[in-house]
């Protein structure tokens, strides 16, 4: 399937699933699909700067990365629509809600690091996109913790994609203004 068709198939699926629960970007009224398309845009821009081995796979991951975590989509449903590899990649990007909140990111990063590099770059792109102005209700400790978590992501996923690593480094610097 060509990249445009892959993109359309994945974004339509993800947009419908996130819209079904009226999910918006936290702190805004924007539909969640804006976040997903921003992650995909980061991937496409990175690919132009430093080619990603399997861009079709990576775009699917970018657009679907929150479906298991945030919607009623099941692993089996992802497998049926997108295949084993995409379902496994999305699962690696999904935090395990059965773990204590303090352990979720470390667990997720361990699973990501045992996955193809395309999964790594989606995590980098996701955090780049999330390092926008934080929701108004976040206090200083929450913002500091989010920044520290982003620093951990950058450290743990070093070697995934130089372009995205530089972008995340710059976003970390820029995010200091919110603390």
From TrEMBL:
Coiled coil: none annotated. The keyword Transport does not apply. The keyword tRNA-binding does not apply. One of its GO terms (molecular function) is guanosine-3',5'-bis(diphosphate) 3'-diphosphatase activity. Keywords: Hydrolase. InterPro entries: MESH1. SUPFAM superfamilies: HD-domain/PDEase-like. PANTHER family: GUANOSINE-3',5'-BIS(DIPHOSPHATE) 3'-PYROPHOSPHOHYDROLASE MESH1. This is Bifunctional (P)ppGpp synthetase/guanosine-3',5'-bis(Diphosphate) 3'-pyrophosphohydrolase. The lineage of its organism: Bacteria, Pseudomonadati, Bacteroidota, Sphingobacteriia, Sphingobacteriales.
